[in-house]
UniProtKB/TrEMBL annotation:
This is ABM domain-containing protein. Residues 7-93 form the ABM domain. It holds the Pfam family ABM. PANTHER family: ABM DOMAIN-CONTAINING PROTEIN, QUINOL MONOOXYGENASE YGIN-RELATED.
Amino acid sequence: MRPRTPVSLYGFLTPKPGHADELRRLLLDLVEPSRGHEGSLQYHLHEQEDGRFFLYEVWRSQEDLDRHNATPLLRACMAELPNHIEGAPEVYFGEMRSPHPAAAV
């Protein structure tokens, strides 16, 4: 069996004019439930000075991220997201190369 490698997901979302408050609420509603999902090592929402939102997630494994992505909460958010953002989200994925102490759990 391949050892688990933490994976990260991060990116920027730009709100449509007049939609920043609704987008903020939508994204903040994900934070605490997502932190409680199995394999969640980090889950953070930042708001940039230019008005964009930055999400940063670290998951114990790709399987944990896949389970998170399949939850009704995240699926509902993804369905609503296009109503509140300009263009496509700027999203990046990667395997974490620096050690993460919680990943061994």
